[in-house]
UniProtKB/TrEMBL annotation:
Protein name per its UniProtKB record: dTDP-glucose 4,6-dehydratase
NCBIfam families xrefs: dTDP_gluc_dehyt
Residue runs in coiled coils: none
EC number from the UniProt entry: 4.2.1.46
Family assignment from sequence similarity: Belongs to the NAD(P)-dependent epimerase/dehydratase family. dTDP-glucose dehydratase subfamily.
Keywords carried by this UniProt record: Lyase, NAD
Reactions the enzyme catalyzes: dTDP-alpha-D-glucose = dTDP-4-dehydro-6-deoxy-alpha-D-glucose + H2O
Gene Ontology biological process terms from the UniProt entry: nucleotide-sugar metabolic process
Names of required cofactors: NAD(+)
Length: 329
């Protein structure tokens, strides 16, 4: 299979590429083209473990560049679309890039896939499109009720992608995944932010009273779900992907403090995020039943390995901490 991976230098996209070119060979990949504009969140270093692989081509460019996308798309059997502005806090500070990349960029890619008869377009989305819920879990047919500019832009792109299936018959598949954690995550997101601060003697900012609930999934388990959707998913279908580990931010902080050998005096409570969604929870029964997918990492071992990775890979994240400060909103 020849795959075009947008956002393949980011956190999840690079994991997908490393696994696709790894020993398990989940896609029988003969070529992987990464299209990435290397925003502050993109990093060629994330692809270092597979950089010498002859099947990998890196294209430095923007998914909104219609001419470039049109030139790159032919010859690929599938597009796996990760590229996005992905940080909720940034979308609150300024939404323009989120709408432009997440909505306009997705439409540019869909047009090219349609024009060139690409076999499958896998749109990687998020559970945040459903909004917030107090109890129970969302199934795939739940209405989309996004609250932040980030999740609204992702919901828009989901709907545009599905419209290309219904209108044009393009084989579009959508996944909606819960919060990912793991190695190579840019240190503005809560797990690497807290871990790197705790490892360097700093304090950590906890929003509000820390009662917001998120469901956590190891990034490799997310990518395994994506391989399963590419192999066995059906055109026009949406698949929820969740870890089944729901934690309040307070509980998550406690686990990270323990893993880093730190105490609660390192935690600073800060004003809550505007419009902070209380709880996300997806029902992954469809992916489990139809695709035979299930997470392989338990949260306990996954988090322990993740913290160990940040402990051992300071050379990867120390330069990025300066980048976080430079692009702080
Ligand atoms: N991180 C999570 O917990 C999570 C959960 C569910 C879904 N998702 C979705 O998965 C995808 C990847 O998320 P991530 O956490 O890896 O994000 P990330 O911010 O780490 O990576 C995004 C990548 O996209 C690239 N990019 C951004 N704008 C671009 C543009 N205009 N043209 C080309 N490349 C561009 C960046 O350079 C970066 O490499 C996103 O679509 C996100 O909505 C993320």
């Amino acid at each position: 299979m020849k795959v075009l991976v947008t956002g393949g230098a980011g956190f999840i996209g690079s994991c997908f590429v490393r696994m696709a070119l790894g020993a398990d060979d989940p896609l029988s990949a003969t070529a992987v083209t990464v299209l990435d504009s290397l925003t502050y969140a993109g990093n060629r270093e994330n692809l270092a473990p597979v950089e010498g692989d002859g099947r990998l081509t890196f294209a430095h460019g923007d998914i909104r560049d219609a001419a470039l996308v049109d030139a790159l798309t032919p010859g690929h059997d599938a597009v796996v679309h990760f590229a996005a502005e992905s940080h909720v806090d940034r979308s609150i500070a300024g939404a323009a890039a989120f709408v432009s990349t997440n909505v306009g960029g997705t439409q540019t890619l869909l047009d090219a896939a349609l024009r060139h008869g690409t076999g499958t377009f896998l749109h990687v989305s998020t559970d945040e499109v459903y909004g917030s819920l107090a109890e129970g879990s969302w199934t795939e047919d739940h209405p989309l009720l996004p609250n932040s500019p980030y999740s609204a832009s992702k919901a828009s792109s989901d709907l545009i992608a599905l419209a290309y299936h219904r209108t044009h018959g393009l084989d579009v598949r959508v996944t909606r995944c819960s919060n990912n954690y793991g190695p190579y995550q840019f240190p503005e997101k809560v797990v690497p932010l807290f871990t790197t601060r705790l490892l360097t003697g700093g304090d950590v900012p906890l929003y509000g009273d820390g009662s917001n609930v998120r469901d956590w999934l190891h990034v490799e388990d997310h990518c395994r779900a994506l391989f399963a959707v590419l192999r066995d998913g059906r055109p026009g279908e949406v698949y929820n992907v969740g870890g089944g580990t729901e934690l309040t931010n307070r509980q998550l902080t406690e686990r990270l403090l323990d893993a880093c050998g730190a105490r609660w005096d390192r935690v600073r409570f800060v004003a809550d995020r505007k419009g902070h969604d209380l709880r996300y929870s997806v029902d992954s029964a469809k992916a489990r039943g139809e695709l035979g997918w299930r997470p392989l990492h338990t949260f306990e071992t996954g988090l322990a390995h993740t913290v160990a990775w940040y402990r051992e890979n300071r050379a990867w994240w120390e330069p990025l901490r300066e980048r976080v400060a430079a692009v702080a909103h």
